[in-house]
Amino acid sequence: MDVKKFDTMDPVMLMSIVNMKIRDEFGSLDSLVKYYDIDKDKLVARLANAGFDYLPDANQFR
């Protein structure tokens, strides 16, 4: 799945993929959004609208 298409993805799948990529490949949300050249605020808002908040201390969405 292509994270760049986050605006049309199922939000539960998106949250899972983003968390996995942060954990396994990027180490931070900032690195992930920079690599994929996507708007961090839009990604965070998309997931927040689905009930998932980004927790910086845990470095993941929950």
UniProtKB/TrEMBL annotation:
It comes from the Bacteria. InterPro entries: DUF4250. This is DUF4250 domain-containing protein.
